[in-house]
Amino acid sequence: MGSTLTRTTPGPRPTHPRRGALRALALATLLAFAPVTFADTPLPGADVASVRAWLLANNPDLQAMQAEAEAAQARIYPAGALPDPMVGISLQGINPDRPNLLPGNVGTATYSVKQPFPLWGKRGLARDVARQQADAVQLEREAAALRLLAQAEQAYVRYWHAREGVAVVDRLIELLAQMEEVARVRYALGVAAQQDSIRAQVARTAMQRDRIERLAIREEAVAMLNATLGRPTDAPLAEPTGEPVLAVPAASLGEALGLLAEARHPALRASTALAGAADTAAQLQRRRRLPDLTLGVGVMQRDDRVDAYEVMLEVEIPLQRRALREREREVLLMGDAARARAQAIGNELQGQLGQAWAQTRSAREQRRLIEQTLLPQAQANFESALASYRVGDVDFGTLLEALEAWQGADLSRVDVRRNELVGAATVRALIGSVE
């Protein structure tokens, strides 16, 4: 008789009920909270506040400078700390025939501990130098934040301006389509030439080309804004919900210069802090002419017993006078350089403020002239020309010129508003206004 062997494949191991419930609960938690997390992170671009908030929270340059500022703060305490003590062992009476370095097999073993003590206030001065340098690093980070905020606001203004320009061109294309329809109707009635409709089509084609160019400018503005924010170039942005609001808390250039002098730009204060650090370092170098002390204690071991104790006193002899003088000269020159740099930065900031203020004021006056005078006049002229064209009092060329003048005035309004806001962003950064 034969027999058949059947191999049985083991089935899946049963899952512990409690472990399966925990896994299901963890998966449900991830699925429930992950969408909410992404939804709670709004995209920048809706307004200026969203751009500023994203920049301050996520810009890698600012994050790097903040880490550097914290590292500088961490250097303050060690700068004034005592040097590490030295522990030593001295072996005497070693048998030259049978050398053995075990303390119990030599004549005398001495164990010592030495601690250097900087005197004359050197530790406090060193800590003051580190503190002033840390303050300078933090102020440089604040100056960089103001500069990046101005760049982000300017990039956002250009992003908004590109969208507004496209909107104006779209309105012009729509009006040209309406004019083309009017021309077609008049041609069908035999009271106008077919050339009027063709001219409207040519004008629409030209505006569509202009629209493509402005869309490309908008993509450039998106890339520039994302680069300033520290985001990928093709990262999505929210659509602007309205015109950017960049208030300047000054009514005149003199008042703006007063705010600049009163607030003291962080770059100015950073140079001042570096100058103070150099002056303190010069005091520290002068104190280095005075000697420091090193105290030590020791225990002498003979065989397996303590034979004696010792106390040591060491005095540093600062003989390298030329090296000390050169170090003093170095820090004094660094202080002079920091003060000269502060003066140069102050002059540069005043020049930038004057230039930005002139740009803002000129653009503001142009915008008011366009909004209050030119734009209403151009609109009235177009409406009058359209009514006259309907009844045959003017030709199509006059109507087309009136439309181009009206929409050109509207595009000029958007352009000068952009220039005004770009200048305002610069003024705000210079006087330290980021609200």
Q: How does the helix and strand content classify structurally?
A: alpha+beta
Give the beta-strand count. 4
Instruction: Tell me the helix content.
Output: 55-70%
> What is the CATH T-level topology?
Outer membrane efflux proteins (OEP)
Number of domains: 1
Number of helices: 10
Low-confidence stretches: 1-39
Task: For the record, give the distance between the C-alpha atoms at the N and C termini, rounded to a whole number.
Answer: 98 Å
Order of strands, main sheet, comes to 1-2-3-4
CATH class descriptor: Mainly Alpha
Reading the helices and strands in chain order gives HHHHEEHHHHEEHH
Please, what is the CATH homologous superfamily? Outer membrane efflux proteins (OEP)
Architecture (CATH level 2) name: Up-down Bundle
Largest sheet: 4 strands, antiparallel
Overall residue-averaged pLDDT value = 83
3D shape: elongated
Organism: Arenimonas metalli CF5-1
GO biological process, one term: signal transduction
Domain Death: 123-180
Protein name: Death domain-containing protein
Salient structural properties:
Death_dom; 10 helices; 9% strand; alpha+beta; Outer membrane efflux proteins (OEP); OMP_efflux; signal; four-stranded antiparallel sheet; 435 residues; coiled coil
Condensed summary:
The chain is 68% helix and 9% strand.
Descriptive notes:
Residues 123-180 form the Death domain. One of its GO terms (molecular function) is efflux transmembrane transporter activity. One of its GO terms (biological process) is signal transduction. Residues 122-149 form a coiled coil. With 435 residues, this protein is an alpha+beta fold. It has helices at 17-39, 48-58, 60-74, 76-79, 122-188, 194-229, 253-263, 266-287, 321-390, 396-430; strands at 86-92, 108-117, 293-302, 305-315. A four-stranded antiparallel beta sheet has the order 1-2-3-4, with no helix packed on it. α5 (122-188) runs antiparallel to α8. The termini are far apart. 29% of the residues are buried. Residues 1-39 have low confidence and may be disordered.
